[in-house]
Amino acid sequence: MSKKWLSSMLTIGSVALSSYYYGAYREKQKLLGNGRLDSKQQLELLHKHISKPAFPLFATVSAAELAVMPEVNLTATPLRISQIMKYGFPSLDNVRSYSDFVLSYDRRNRVPNWVFEHLTPLSVAKNEEVDRAKCDFKADESIHPYFRSQNSDYFRSGFDRGHMAAAGNHRLHQKHCEDTFFLTNMAPQVGQGFNRDAWNRLEMYVRKLTKIYPNIYVCTGPLYLPHREDDGKNYIKYQVIGTNNVAVPTHFYKVVVAESTDGQLDMEAYIMPNQVISDDTPLQIFQVPPESIERAAGLLFFDKVNKKQLVKINGKKV
Amino acid sequence: MSKKWLSSMLTIGSVALSSYYYGAYREKQKLLGNGRLDSKQQLELLHKHISKPAFPLFATVSAAELAVMPEVNLTATPLRISQIMKYGFPSLDNVRSYSDFVLSYDRRNRVPNWVFEHLTPLSVAKNEEVDRAKCDFKADESIHPYFRSQNSDYFRSGFDRGHMAAAGNHRLHQKHCEDTFFLTNMAPQVGQGFNRDAWNRLEMYVRKLTKIYPNIYVCTGPLYLPHREDDGKNYIKYQVIGTNNVAVPTHFYKVVVAESTDGQLDMEAYIMPNQVISDDTPLQIFQVPPESIERAAGLLFFDKVNKKQLVKINGKKV
């Protein structure tokens, strides 16, 4: 997360955000069955939002125009891209927003890539009206059936359906709590000794940070870390469970940014192995440089953070 | 690839396309160092292209508005999403377009997710002006250094830098051929007996389809398939090479759509193991239902194809 990169990502990020929102909004419209548009309307809408000459990418190319266009493109011209991708993109982003958290779903591994939460003293406070016992684990029907994890995948697997966005972080409303029970927010976790113990301790620790800081941002997700075998080569190996081959991550990460009232930020980053961890193990030994998670996960965390605001990483002054 | 899904994907796809193009265009602008905008200009641009009320997601929320907004959201409100994601998305799509092909890069595995090509008799024809021998394998500097595969990762690994978009498919211009040598277009492949033999035979076969069909669309990529071990459990296991842990896929896929002059489409789908394959093995035995690749890869291929146009899959009438 170098300074140069941060600043370039800051701008790219905000642009990417808009494209995501636009796509997400339209996809939601489709999924909800509202405002279905025929293809002509769709095209009109697209054109309306993409003006020339800044965004000529969706300009209609007539046969006449086509005839005078050079045959050889040396950069990726919009026309050429639309030719290559004529029958659709195999994947774009897989970001989903729920009532109180946002996640990116890994359609290959049927678990999230990352889950993002924003905690406040209010969102984590005990609330009589929210009853976790009434929440049911449920498949997310908005995920294509090919990629959708099911309760049956976890059944008798020996693994817990482990929350990435913790249920206890979302207590403002029953719906917020219920949404954390979508299987898109789960990954297979060792139960006794991990999900119900060390991992839970980490979740409680993060929740308690709201007693010190008014705003906590948390990103949580799985890792598939390599190990060296006797042949001297490095391998990534992980179990998959159920008919949908849901991946059992080798490790989990949590990256936390705590924002104080004056805007100063403290960052902490953790990697925990998905295995029994003894109760007397201090959480601190799982702290790692945030970069090590970024490299292993293929992600960049908090890239919009202004480095000047960042005071501490893992308790040490930057 | 059900009919219902196809039609819904058709519309979603075209919308996703626009969000991608918008993001890709802007990112390219940034990467090329052209038309850099300050953050105020960026915001203005965003607002210009996102009108209310259809796209209220980027509407600026003033402190006054904030004060009257309900505290508890039951659906993902734009405001809440922007609060949660205040410091940036860890990932969005990773689609890149080159002069004559388009790919999605897997930042975790440092190989592509998929590479898309459009072949024509012209693009694959021998061209005296294009010299493959002058092309060098090169890292793509537009990928963040944390996720960028390097020539050194492949060096002495025992694996070839295997093209996904084949060099021989892009002969219209030297630049088209050169672009296929970006390491973003590569994955580690067994050399003798695979990359230089069976895989090459498949590439040549696809290329020759342009003698029958005027337009060929090809999607190529890696797979990480599970296997059952003695303990009765299923595992995904693959080697990683070099300091950047570049994944060695267990298999590779190729999905081909051949478009005839009357618009009829024939589809073929192949999975080949990344290992020595004997020269007398007919290509046909590697044919699989396209759905099996989609499930394993977490992708949907050719979802904008109109089912009515689709005549054959793997040589059999639909």
Brief characterization of the structure:
Two copies of one chain form a homodimer. By secondary structure, the first copy, chain A, is an alpha+beta fold.
SSE layout and pairings?
Two copies of one chain form a homodimer.
Chain A: H1 3-32, H2 39-49, H3 63-68, H4 78-84, E1 95-97, E2 101-106, E3 111-119, H5 121-124, H6 151-154, E4 159-163, H7 174-179, E5 186-190, H8 191-195, H9 198-208, E6 215-223, E7 227-228, E8 234-241, E9 246-247, E10 251-259, E11 265-273, H10 290-297, E12 310-313, E13 316-317
Parallel strand pairs in A: 11-12
Antiparallel strand pairs in A: 1-2, 2-3, 3-6, 4-5, 6-10, 7-8, 8-9, 10-11, 12-13
GO biological process, one term (chains A, B): apoptotic DNA fragmentation
Family (chains A, B): Belongs to the DNA/RNA non-specific endonuclease family.
Keywords (chains A, B): Disulfide bond, Endonuclease, Hydrolase, Magnesium, Metal-binding, Mitochondrion, Nuclease, Transit peptide
Q: What is the N-to-C order of secondary-structure elements of chain A (H for helix, E for strand)?
A: HHHHEEEHHEHEHHEEEEEEHEE
What helical percentage do the residues of chain A reach? Answer: 25-40%
How many β-strand stretches of chain A? 13
Low-confidence sequence ranges of chain A: 1-70
Strand order of the largest sheet of chain A: 1-2-3-6-10-11-12-13
Q: Which range does the strand content of chain A fall in?
A: 15-25%
